[in-house]
Amino acid sequence: MTDRSNNITPLDNANASSVDNVLHTAKGFRDHVSEQRFSVFRQPIVALDTGKTHHYEWLVRFDDADHLEGVLRPAEISGVIRDLDLSMLAQAILVLNDNPEGIGIAINLSGASVDKPNFKGSALACLTALNASPTKLIIELTESWNMLSLIHAQDLLSELQSRGHVICLDDVGAGAASIRYLRALPANWLKIDGGFVAAALNNMRDRAILKALLSLRQALDVRFIAEGVENKEILEFVTKLGFDAAQGFAIGKPELETRI
User: Fold this and answer.
1) Cα separations (Å) of 74 from 13, 29, 39, 70, 82?
2) Coil, strand or helix: which one is 176?
3) Which of 16, 44, 157, 214 could be a cystine partner for 53, CB 3.0 to 4.6 Å?
4) Which whole-number Å values give the CA distances from 60 to 37, 65, 112, 256, 257, in the listed order?
């Protein structure tokens, strides 16, 4: 499934016109990243036992994009998503070094990056500049890309975890790859997909599955984040279920990151 070429081809005839947008080309995407033609927002992840912000997740919004998914998917297919991943990593390091005692930052790494054998060296080279505690830098692995082989991802994440970085598996429950990732990849946090959380609120079957996942806390030595907590009802629901932390509009809306 992975296209390692430098050119992005349309996924199908229905969206072939999308390549007319410069953001949907490898060169255009690289230019946007290198010239920082995007905004970074931060959204708090709050510990439910204290009500305090545990860390922020960094979210990217491209200046010329109406829908981020339409930009990132072609970038993942071509492999140029690594440019964005490394850029976000470098910027997070600068912010953390400026305020080592501040709140931690979570950045997203695409599966399309971490399953490449040469990404590990680039990421570790970038991390040599980090002076703050490695626990302040949380690495979230997104499930938007279905990795056919988990060897390189497992190697990188294990190395990062051994260095003290916190590993979070994102969107657990959203795709078919979740169980494969849970079996193979190290993690300190599991972030449960917001759609799954919302469905469990009113569906007994979904709720039973969610409770079963939460029961793995001690066996897997992980903590759980509820994503998509958009209202008080869902907040009360995930608190009662025993989630460790939550993210969503009921917790805090994304705000522009001003420290970059």
Assistant:
1) 14, 9, 19, 7, 12
2) coil
3) 44
4) 10, 11, 17, 10, 10
CA 99, chain centre distance (Å): 22
CA–CA separation, 234 and 6 (whole Å):
43
The predicted-structure confidence for 68-90, as pLDDT tens digits, reads as follows: 666 788 888 888 999 999 999 99
Does the pTM surpass 0.70? The reply is yes
Q: Which domains does the chain have, with CATH numbers?
A: 20-256 (3.20.20.450)
Please check whether residue 18 is in contact with residue 70, taking contact to mean a CB–CB distance below 8 angstroms. yes
pLDDT in tens, 224-259: 999 999 999 999 999 999 999 999 999 999 999 999
Question: Which DSSP symbol is given to 250?
Answer: T
Residue 103 sits at φ, ψ, to 5 deg, of: -75, 145
Nearest-angstrom CA–CA distance, 145 and 1: 10
Torsion angles phi and psi, residue 55, rounded to 5 = -165, 170
Residues whose CB is less than 8 angstroms from the CB of residue 199 and which lie 6 or more positions away in sequence, other chains included: 206
